[in-house]
Specification:
The chain contains 4 helices and 4 strands; from the N terminus they run βαβαβαβα. The chain is of the alpha/beta class. Strands 2-1-3-4 form a 4-stranded parallel β-sheet, sandwiched between helices. Helix 3 links the parallel strand 3 and strand 4. It is globular, with a radius of gyration of 13 Å. 21% of the residues are buried. The model has no long low-confidence stretch (mean pLDDT 86).
């Protein structure tokens, strides 16, 4: 059984996920990944993380990150999971 804190990375860009996942693993975290809000919900239900890092612009079946966050908050078994909204866009634009 793996007792490392788990971080779920949610971003549609595989390169962003790869860079972030590599860094987090080097810091000692177990990392799971999802490329959409829909995939993130499936991962959370299957393997609840300690923390979710979600791109605020992540797509997924018409569900945006904010709607996914609201759905998680309403679930009594998942609402305690902290979610940090992220964005790599400003770094790419500067």
């Amino acid at each position: 059984m793996d007792f490392l804190p788990t971080i779920l990375l949610v971003d549609e860009d595989p390169q962003v996920r790869s860079v972030m996942a590599a860094r987090l693993r080097r810091l000692g975290y177990r990392v799971t990944e999802a490329d959409s809000a829909t995939a993130a919900r499936a991962v959370v239900l299957r393997d609840p993380p300690t923390l979710i890092l979600m791109d605020r612009g992540v797509p997924g079946d018409g569900q945006q990150a904010r709607t996914t966050l609201e759905l998680l908050r309403r679930d009594p078994q998942l609402g305690h999971i902290p979610v940090l909204m992220t964005s790599a866009r400003s770094a790419l634009l500067s």
